[in-house]
Amino acid sequence: MFKVTTSALAFAGLLWSPAEALAQKYTIVSVCHTENKVAEVDPVTGKTLRTFIVPGEWVGETHEGAITADGKTLYVSTPYQKKVLVLDLETFKQKGVLESEFFSRPRETRRFVRIGERETTSSDPHGVALSNDESKLYVSVEFAAPPGVVVVDLKSGKTRKIDTGSAGNYLWVQPKTGKLYFPTRDNRVVVVDTATDTVLRSIPVQGGPNGVDFSPNGEVWVNGDRDGSVTVIDSKTDQVVKVIQPRAKGPGRVAASPDGRFVAATHGPEVSVIDVATKEILADLKISLDETGHGFPLFSPDSNTLHVMNELSNDMVTFDLRTMKPIGGRVPIGEASFGGGIRLLK
Length: 346
Hints:
Largest sheet: 5 strands, antiparallel
Oligomer: single chain
Distance between the termini: 22 Å
Helix content: under 10%
Number of strands: 31
Radius of gyration: 19 Å
Number of helices: 1
């Protein structure tokens, strides 16, 4: 999944105005699993501006990523190659690669989603997150023995591993506290101090926690892949303060708006827009043409627009959060697009 540290034109008779188009000073970077592709998309026209193809024989090579605050560099994981690629977003060309002994494990046969059983020696370097000063990159290794998080010093290239004892594939660093929150498959969220790179605690969170994001008030929001729940954690105490149960079930991700008003959580065919202050669901919005879906939410920098990629339909839908109505058409965004982020333009 990409994030920054901090669609087509007609649908239901609504159009982007020229003023709105000029106000959109950002692009959307998407990761397309089955095409091994990273794409940059204009959110106003829906046009794909640039693409980067990762060479390799594995289907689903590109996975998650992190964009630097200046919008110039992307770190994107390619777990079957046992690498994290460094992409120059100004030229859309690779400018480096990160490798580690901890990205490997003894050979085993594993079942992969799109290709079935296959032998591999990868520990699955999957989720990637930058420290707040962007000096370190944290990489989840779900199939390491034991599972954990690899810390890459981006200046020296040296790596070390934090054993978490729990397996997960996504993680992110809270901007205010510098704590890393790592949802795991055994119903826990592991908290890591990025100053010392040590585990602080493990928070019980039910529902199969997977994605995580942070509202500016310091709260941690975690989506549940198994039951569609959204768990709210107070980062001062690292205690669960609320569990919200939307009407739809199913896996997805979660995103918090930059202005602190909203959280968007996807579950199957819907995205729930939640009021951060009241913890109440303001709207349940359909993101799919049928009853299936796997959505990846992204807020515009001004927090007035919500984009949701749908991995199962290979497209993106966009909503105006002032009206809670869709705007633009369904924008083709690449095959199995799940993961992406906002790239701020200067």
